[in-house]
C-alpha cells in the first residue's frame, strides 16, 4: 500500500511540473515572407511584433520571418501563399 501511495504522489508532482513548464515547441509556426531587406523598418517592427505575439500566446504561436525574397520572387511567394505553403505575406509597393 505504501508503494502505491508513493507512486501516486510522484505522479502528482510530475503532473504539476508538466503543467507549469510547457514544452518549448510552439503549437503553431507560421512563415511570414516579404521582399524587403532585414534592416528595413517594416522588418524591424514585424520582428518586434512576432516576438510579442510569441510571448502573448505563451509560446504557442511562433512567426518565422523570411525577408529579402528568401522564399522566391513576389509571384512565387503569392503562389506559395495560395497553396498554403506560406501563411503570411507582406507585399510592398516601394523598393
Total strands: 3
Q: Main sheet?
A: 3 strands, parallel
Q: In terms of per-residue confidence, which ranges show pLDDT below 50 for 5 or more consecutive residues?
A: 12-21
Estimate the strand proportion: 15-25%
What is the radius of gyration?
Answer: 21 Å
Gap between N and C termini: 74 Å
Number of helices: 3
Question: SS-based structural class?
Answer: alpha/beta
- Helix-strand string: HEHEHE
User: How would you write the strand order of the largest sheet?
Assistant: 2-1-3
Could you walk me through the main structural features you see in this protein, from its secondary elements to its overall organization?
The termini are far apart. Strand 1 (28-34), helix 2 and strand 2 (61-66) form a beta-alpha-beta unit. The protein is built from three helices and three strands. Strands 2-1-3 form a three-stranded parallel beta sheet, sandwiched between helices. The chain is flat and about 35 Å long. The chain has one domain. It has helices at residues 2-20, 41-56, 74-83, and strands at 28-34, 61-66, 88-90. 7% of the residues are buried.
Q: Which secondary structure elements does this structure contain, and how are they paired or packed?
A:
Layout: H1 2-20, E1 28-34, H2 41-56, E2 61-66, H3 74-83, E3 88-90
Parallel strand pairs: 1-2, 1-3
Summarize the structure.
This protein has 95 residues and is α/β, with parallel strands linked by helices.
Amino acid at each position: 500500500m505504501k508503494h502505491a501511495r508513493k507512486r501516486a504522489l510522484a505522479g502528482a508532482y510530475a503532473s504539476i511540473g508538466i503543467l507549469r513548464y510547457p514544452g518549448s515547441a510552439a503549437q503553431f509556426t507560421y512563415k511570414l515572407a516579404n521582399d524587403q531587406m532585414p534592416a528595413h523598418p517594416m522588418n524591424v517592427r514585424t520582428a518586434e511584433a512576432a516576438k510579442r505575439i510569441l510571448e502573448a500566446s505563451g509560446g504557442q504561436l511562433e512567426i518565422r520571418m523570411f525577408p529579402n525574397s528568401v522564399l522566391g520572387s513576389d509571384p512565387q511567394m503569392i503562389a506559395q501563399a495560395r497553396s498554403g505553403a506560406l501563411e503570411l505575406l507582406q507585399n510592398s509597393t516601394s523598393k
